[in-house]
Amino acid sequence: MALELRQSLGLAQQLVMTPQLQQAIKLLQLSRLELLETISQEMQENPVLEEISPEESEPDDEKNDGKEEPPGETGEIPEVTVEERVRDDVDWEAYITEYNTGWAETHYEERDIPSFENITDTKPSFSEHLTWQLNMSSLDADQKKIGIHIIGNLNEDGYLDISLEELSKATGYSVDKVMDTLRLIQNFDPVGTAARDIQECLLIQARFHKLEGTIVENIILHHMKDLENRNYDRIASALSCPLQDVLSAVSVIQTLDPRPGRLYSTEETIYITPDIYVFKVGDDYEIVQNEDGLPKLRINGYYRQILQDKIPISENTKAYIQEKMRSAAWLIKSIHQRQRTLYRVTQSIVRFQKEFLDKGIAYLKPLVLRNVAEDIEMHESTVSRVTTNKYVYTPQGLFELKFFFNSSISRIDGEALASESVKEQIRKLIKNEDKTRPYSDKEIEKIMKGLNISVARRTIAKYRESMGILPSRKRREIPFKQRPWP
Known about the structure:
Layout: H1 19-28, H2 32-45, E1 49-51, H3 54-57, H4 92-98, H5 102-105, H6 116-119, H7 126-136, H8 141-152, H9 164-171, H10 175-185, H11 198-208, H12 215-222, H13 224-228, H14 232-239, H15 243-253, E2 276-281, E3 284-289, E4 297-299, H16 301-308, H17 315-352, H18 354-359, H19 369-376, H20 380-386, E5 391-394, E6 397-400, E7 408-409, E8 417-418, H21 419-431, H22 441-450, H23 457-466, H24 472-475
Parallel strand pairs: 2-5
Antiparallel strand pairs: 1-4, 2-3, 5-6, 7-8
Helix pairs in contact: 1-17, 7-8, 8-10, 9-10, 11-12, 12-15, 14-15, 17-19, 19-20, 22-23
């Protein structure tokens, strides 16, 4: 078969996403903080964009028109003022000298005010706290050098991440010298620092409290697996001691800290600012968008005037201004579209989940993206993007918009339940169970059937694990009379 080149025409359709469309889609899925950062970056890069000041955004009827009424026409009696003159014969220099106080000598100049960083309280980090103790200790120069390497290789929980051989190779000292220094650092505050595993960490703390030779030390040394699984009967049998003594020792172990480094964690609490509020007004709900801190943008009038007045400028400059104006106009339009879409999605969710807002999580209904998409006549992908990393404040608390979308769990008789409602029911059952005889997953399945909820045992296990709840054998508690340890 001979090969030949030929030309042919073909008709095809394909979706081409313009940069403006990509930007609009990107703005939909940005969180509030990310949106503020994007706007700030655009304002720095685009000179055509500017923020409307609060004074300019006020309604005209609320502003003073600047006209003052002539005096005497209002018929009001003018206010009487008394002028008090300061005596000229007062010796102010002598007065200040006589009453020389701290406030009299203070000069409120900007150069005399200490920087804000110097007057705020800063929490020392974990490594700084240990390094300070190392410098204050009586260790020699070699041990301090080893100590610096040990502190630098601790993780956030306070455990040593590398082996003694690696430390010996890094510092150039023998393994025995490294081990001696490690034992000293392990007794720094917090006790148990620089342990290599949880067993060593607990053992250091137990010996620090002078519990050598007790059941506490024996359990940590030889029965950690049984302790983890709460097999207290097996521990008592292995140690040939009463069960009450084992339970008392376990209560002591529970007071020890398995993660000593977390006391000096530098992680700060991140507070969530809701994107939208839902308030109950009478029997209905009002939706209010959170506009605090969100700048209101407009196109700078100077550049618009340049194009309108046809001021002689170069073609490159004109093309640059036109491009920036189109970019600015599209950004403003995309932000407004984002806010409108967020409002409409929240409005639809409120309609579907009104019973939840009235009565609580037990009345949360099953909901999928398609339900909201069909309600507001948008695509499911748009609803998915606009509910990503968005939070709403409701009378029931603060929730991510994704929270309201739940799979359904069928009832034996009646309407289906949302999976979050089933999780809440399981959590309440476990919270109110007899701690000495906790419910197994099979028993919870039977109880749920008695509540007209059909849910399999493996589903209960999955929900329980997602909520961080231990299995029944690890939730079991044995009552005991605690006796003080020496």
